[in-house]
Design brief:
The chain contains eleven helices and 13 strands. By secondary structure, it is an alpha/beta fold. The strands form three sheets. Strands 1-4-5-7-6-8-9-12-13 form a nine-stranded mixed β-sheet, with helices on both faces. Strands 2-3 form a two-stranded antiparallel ribbon. Strands 10-11 form a two-stranded antiparallel ribbon.
């Protein structure tokens, strides 16, 4: 994204980058392609040693709640565009690119502790309060550890198809899949490959996600924007954080919603029940014919469940 490259020398802690045509953003809304007026800003936050990119939907002027959205491994902030545009009718919405993803800078360390520190820094820099934190997959792992610290600004938590324990076979298959689909002849081929791997997904939402997840290489082919180091099994060390994650879950003090795709191999029924039993105030909702990426597989159901949980209906 050339616009970001033009401002990296600015000696500012926060750098505001306007989006051209941001008043009319076309995105798949509620499962249908549409255009509505939204106000979304792309910004950069200079953290300790790297730049974090995030999207910020202002919401109503009198809104005192913030929806903070954390995506999964190898995804990006723009996967939330449709949902965020809808929810910005009610509250401010902030969606960062996690370190090494999207437009955020690649770094040497992707440990969960570092990523939790990034969330704390983002919250502090923007002065966020009354937060409903949504963490999908990797974002959920980060959210559990962050919420276990009992931050005063947190009001609600949503964990999307994730628990501190991910089955070993699922983790192994995940990294195998990363290596098998890393180069494409065109965006269309990338979309077709992902649709073949996940036929349950909403075509509009998956296409939007993939088109904003890839970049062209010098030879004309296409690859993912995220740091290739994230494909390495030891980059994040989910397995090593299991005990810490379950301990953190037991300290969570806010109302929590756990979402599970009924056909997901990431959040097993047993671990979903364990989460509900571990987090003091927690409920579970399960989506039929849905896999791991609930916001993409079941966008309408995800939106409706969020609206109900936040009492916005």
């Amino acid at each position: 994204m050339a616009l970001l490259a033009n401002v990296v020398a600015e000696p500012l802690d926060r750098m505001r980058i306007p989006i051209t045509n941001h008043a009319n953003m076309s995105c798949p809304c509620g499962g249908q392609q549409g255009v509505r007026s939204v106000h979304v800003q792309d910004e950069l936050l200079q953290l300790d040693g790297f730049r974090l990119h995030y999207r910020d939907w202002a919401g109503p002027t009198d809104a005192d709640e913030t929806l903070l959205l954390l995506h999964g491994l190898t995804a990006h902030a723009r996967q939330w565009d449709s949902f965020a545009a809808h929810m910005s009718r009610h509250c401010r919405v902030v969606a960062p690119d996690l370190r090494g993803h999207g437009e955020s800078q690649w770094v040497d360390s992707y440990g969960l502790d570092s990523q939790v520190a990034d969330v704390r820094s983002l919250v502090a820099a923007l002065g966020l309060d009354h937060i409903t934190l949504v963490g999908q997959s990797l974002g959920g792992s980060i959210s559990i550890l962050y919420s276990g610290g009992v931050p005063a600004e947190l009001a609600r938590l949503v964990l999307v198809d994730i628990a501190p324990t991910i089955p070993k076979s699922t983790r192994k298959q995940m990294y195998t899949d990363f290596e098998q689909a890393a180069r494409f002849d065109s965006p269309e081929q990338a979309i077709a490959t992902e649709l073949a791997a996940n036929p349950r997904a909403s075509h509009e939402h998956l296409s939007h996600r993939i088109r904003n997840a890839i970049q062209r290489l010098a030879d004309g082919s296409w690859t993912w924007r995220y740091d290739p180091a994230l494909r390495q099994p030891g980059a994040i060390a989910f397995h090593g954080a299991e005990d810490e994650g379950w301990a953190a879950a037991g300290r969570i003090q806010v109302p929590t919603l756990v979402m599970r795709g009924a056909e997901s191999e990431y959040l097993t029924p047993e671990n979903a029940k364990r989460l509900v039993a571990t987090i003091p105030t927690c409920e579970l909702v399960e989506f039929a014919n849905c896999g791991h990426v609930v916001p993409i597989d079941e966008p309408d159901g995800f939106r409706d469940a969020m609206t109900q949980f936040m009492s916005l209906g």
